[in-house]
Amino acid sequence: MLLNADVGESFGIWTLGRDAEVIPWLDQANIACGFHASDPLTMQKTVCLALAHQVSIGAHPAYPDLIGFGRRSLKVSGEELRALIRYQVGALQAITRAEGGQVDYVKPHGALYNDMMSDAALLQDVMEAIAALNQYSETPLSLMLLSRADNSAVEALAERHQLPLIFEAFADRAYTPSGLLMPRSEPGAVHHDSKLILAQAISLARQQNVSTPSGLLSLKADSLCVHGDNEDSIATVRAIHQALRQN
Amino acid sequence: MLLNADVGESFGIWTLGRDAEVIPWLDQANIACGFHASDPLTMQKTVCLALAHQVSIGAHPAYPDLIGFGRRSLKVSGEELRALIRYQVGALQAITRAEGGQVDYVKPHGALYNDMMSDAALLQDVMEAIAALNQYSETPLSLMLLSRADNSAVEALAERHQLPLIFEAFADRAYTPSGLLMPRSEPGAVHHDSKLILAQAISLARQQNVSTPSGLLSLKADSLCVHGDNEDSIATVRAIHQALRQN
Amino acid sequence: MLLNADVGESFGIWTLGRDAEVIPWLDQANIACGFHASDPLTMQKTVCLALAHQVSIGAHPAYPDLIGFGRRSLKVSGEELRALIRYQVGALQAITRAEGGQVDYVKPHGALYNDMMSDAALLQDVMEAIAALNQYSETPLSLMLLSRADNSAVEALAERHQLPLIFEAFADRAYTPSGLLMPRSEPGAVHHDSKLILAQAISLARQQNVSTPSGLLSLKADSLCVHGDNEDSIATVRAIHQALRQN
Amino acid sequence: MLLNADVGESFGIWTLGRDAEVIPWLDQANIACGFHASDPLTMQKTVCLALAHQVSIGAHPAYPDLIGFGRRSLKVSGEELRALIRYQVGALQAITRAEGGQVDYVKPHGALYNDMMSDAALLQDVMEAIAALNQYSETPLSLMLLSRADNSAVEALAERHQLPLIFEAFADRAYTPSGLLMPRSEPGAVHHDSKLILAQAISLARQQNVSTPSGLLSLKADSLCVHGDNEDSIATVRAIHQALRQN
């Protein structure tokens, strides 16, 4: 079980997150590409930080919306979506390549991530965007996305695009009986008790299952999405990292 | 002698230039990368147009200044400059790769181009930006820049970076005796007579020299920079294209 | 019956529309404020053009989306919406005031206009945004919006905000029996025959009614929205202007 | 002697400065207007904070450069400069007016401030930008700028534009014998000892003079520029505030 987090989300003079503290505990760094956060110089510094800690680098493309931090849906055509994903992935690839590294995967950000999980046509556009980059590459980019109770449709689509998938799950979010993330508006949607978070992480890692209001649910997960915004969340990441190593 | 022009400089709903009309007559298309003009979808369309006409594709990176069309100098550190060039080049590379093509060269735009020609430290940063991308590539990117009476210092610097150069010259601009472009503020700085433009193009192509107020000047040129903004300039491009083919 | 059009929609080096040709025929100029199009200098020039032809000036605020030209919905809170409308209106007010003129009304642009017409809560936010500016002003800003078969709810809401309204209608669009604009996807949604456009303009001006598939519909209209994008549309504006003067 | 500080410099999700802690100790709040920092919603919140503490509101316009935080010079024509200052001032005026307040003065930011102090033509453009807004206003905007050993030329220029001036000085910066700020590259350019800062504040307030390497220099100052970035600087602001009250 790997750990991933969104990093490199500073912008110009403004800092966000504690990248230097959280990156050492990660396996995969989802690096912002300038559309919802970051700028070329911030990307450069984040890439160097990830490479210094041998953390796998992922592109974290978004809708073009700095003011809204990429959290608002934006209607784009399939053609425009493919172009803006390739633009952002390519920008990060060049910055990473110049430092001797490579981009391993793509994880869409915010509203684009949510839209991709709820709209099959949009997911297909995302897959086409990445698959076309893989055609001429020896080390194909994977797509990181949300694991759900039934991933078969997503897997079939990915197979048609010859696109490797990385399924992620959450240790700090409650799940519904059908395997969706409990909406944040619900009470108890986000776990704050670190013991509970640790238990869910270990359960996902060992048994590939998660507790829901109606019992245990089987959930495939290659990676856990964690957060590095503040001291508490970083302590939790470290604890998960250590617990997983012990197991 | 090749012909190059700045293309793909539309932005969102706003169009600029007559790309569809001028690209068929070009050998090299300098494609804007979103910092002074263009956006991912416009880049995608421009790349397809260039590939359809077998025109070599160059990245045309700029200072981040849409409002000023990249024509204003912006003080950036060497580190920031390298990052923003790689960002733009990489973005275009991914969009091009997805269509089965490749980016062959980099030509900085506007104020960045002028600053690079007048500031050796900045030129070195530009070269380092590109050279680092070439380290891990089988087909290295070239740098397109302005040919001057004495290119030896530039060539020595490029050799240290193992960076191929493409020297460009202008058929429609008057040159000073020392081989610089006559400033636009001077009378006669820009040729409007198409016979004069053709004659200068042919002279540069055949004898690698150009007329100046104090006589002929030897000027190395691999490519002529032409323009595709309006009917007249496109007619001139076509005429230069045909004249060069006949010679 | 007045004539209004969206103008000042150039951006930096990119021009859009034929403002200098259409503004002389207008009574009201809806001037872009930098969020979907325009920039401070373009606004300045457009204001001067409108003042030179004694055309009433309206602010044309939009969602912040240059790439999408303000044509895509963007989820914003009521507080954010009020702030971004005031920001844009105030920016135009200062530029106009410096030239000795004043902004007379506000007409939201594109997706913001459509959202306002279909979402009563959003319309109320728009009204509050403007009404708060009117509290301390001697010459209150009006709100320009789409006239429909039944404007009573809109008028009641405006009265609560003491907000003068300007109802606009279209001479070149077909109407549904219930008084909505025929969706552009329907055949015949946009009139191209200038005789038909003129007839609809005159019918709206004289009888305040419009033809629909199921007969004449009464439609209040203070202003007709016209377009100045190309030679044909400008010729139509001139013809409508002259026909209305004769009547 | 008044205290002013740059506030409202957050942007979207990114926060900067501790506005809620420093504003209560200020007399004048220089509020960013969206070009180097801030956005409409942030401006709205900052205005409410200033009004709640009865702090005078100033517009803090800048060159359009979010990535560079307005700290880089940008070549703009006089016409463009006037337009972009009016745009930003007007945007803040509308947001402030809607809350029942008013903008009292304008203090250019960063590189625009420095350019204005070193380039008389640019200072004249800034003054014209503001003076044109004052023509039709009962409560004229003032211009806040740096006090120097000899302010007579600036005062003469302002008088021609009937523009009230607010001269500011620094308690935490060393001054050269000729009354300029010691460049930050020099050792000792910035005071860190709070006793020294307090002494300089009191000296400026009581005797209108300041220590320099060659003795006391007379320096007119209406307002002291202070900073609210961190706990230390806020403690210093509070100490200056209390010391000035006692005197």
List the helices and strands and how they pair.
The structure is a homotetramer of 247-residue chains.
Chain A: E1 2-7, H1 19-22, E2 28-32, H2 40-52, E3 56-60, H3 78-98, E4 103-106, H4 110-118, H5 120-134, E5 142-146, H6 152-160, E6 165-170, H7 194-206, E7 209-212, E8 215-218, E9 223-226, H8 231-246
Parallel strand pairs in A: 1-2, 1-9, 2-3, 3-4, 4-5, 5-6, 6-9
Antiparallel strand pairs in A: 7-8
Describe this entry's structure for a reader.
- The structure is a homotetramer of 247-residue chains.
- The first copy, chain A, is of the alpha/beta class and 247 residues long.
- Chain A has one domain (2-246): Alpha-Beta Barrel (TIM Barrel).
- Helix content of chain A is 40%, strand content 17%.
- Chain A has helices at 19-22, 40-52, 78-98, 110-118, 120-134, 152-160, 194-206, 231-246; strands at residues 2-7, 28-32, 56-60, 103-106, 142-146, 165-170, 209-212, 215-218, 223-226.
- The first copy, chain A, is globular, with a radius of gyration of 17 Å.
- The mean pLDDT of chain A is 95.
- The C-D interface holds C 34, 40-41, 43-44, 79-80, 82-84, 86-95, 97-100, 129, 132-133, 135-137 and D 34, 40-41, 43-44, 77, 79-80, 82-84, 86-95, 97-100, 129, 132-133, 135-137.
